[in-house]
């Protein structure tokens, strides 16, 4: 009886992990991989220019505070709360609207601060 596709995939993953966990593989990584990584980092190969700086203004205008994307997300939140109200018939669900607005504003502020904007 043949094993199923998922059983064979699971077995092959276990075998590949077992191969990587051998003493030889660990020794090769320790003696070749780590010195190579240190060498490349020391030579500056691991450094690069930020290729996305040209698009930063566009991203801030699209996803920043007061952007169209934020407006559409808040509009979708209102629609979803209304649909939730239609499902539950509980007026307290409308209290989620200001909560979602505050959470969305905080998330966008965190993203904007981490992007350096």
UniProtKB/TrEMBL annotation:
It is a multi-pass membrane protein. Keywords: Cell inner membrane, Cell membrane, Conjugation, Membrane, Secreted, Transmembrane, Transmembrane helix. The keyword Nucleotide-binding does not apply. The chain crosses the membrane at residues 69-86, 92-111. It is found in: Cell inner membrane; Secreted. Monomer. Interacts with itself to form filaments; also interacts with TraQ. Belongs to the TraA family. This is Pilin. It comes from Providencia stuartii. The lineage of its organism: Bacteria, Pseudomonadati, Pseudomonadota, Gammaproteobacteria, Enterobacterales.
